[in-house]
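Entry 12.
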Amino acid sequence: MSKFPLKNFFKAAYDLILVFLQFFIISLHFFQWEFLPQRQIIQESPFSYFLGILIIIIAFIIMLVSIKDLGRNLSPFPRPINNSNLVTSGIYRFTRHPMYYSLIFISIGVFIIKLSIYYLFLTIILALIIKLKIALEEKYLMTIFKNYSLYKNKVKV
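Predicted 3D structure (tokens):
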């Protein structure tokens, strides 16, 4: 038995695990688990509420723009879909991963609204998962698109 099928299996499993964890952590933002401490770091205020809402709205708009700009290339998985194109126009002229960063900022916005350790923990975990996902996606993009390294050097964030 060859090592390659097993190696491909683990690569695919890692992709799936990252996507599952990302969606799972995002879903935890919408549920309040009674057995987890919801202790607030500081008292909520109208300012923190409006700041959190503002961050969420801006991040959501950036996410919608990035979805529109990706078009048929959109996928929740780090591996690009077959016959996809490298998108370097629109919002992708300014940042390489606007959708991922939008998710992090939405999570930050929720944390600012709730100001609890629970949401801080979710934000940190989501940021770590997205960091791993970006690293993996960039490996795929470097392999599939020969001009990705030029794009990566031009667009730093």
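Annotation: The chain is about 65% helix and 0% strand. Residues 117-144 form the longest helix (28 residues).
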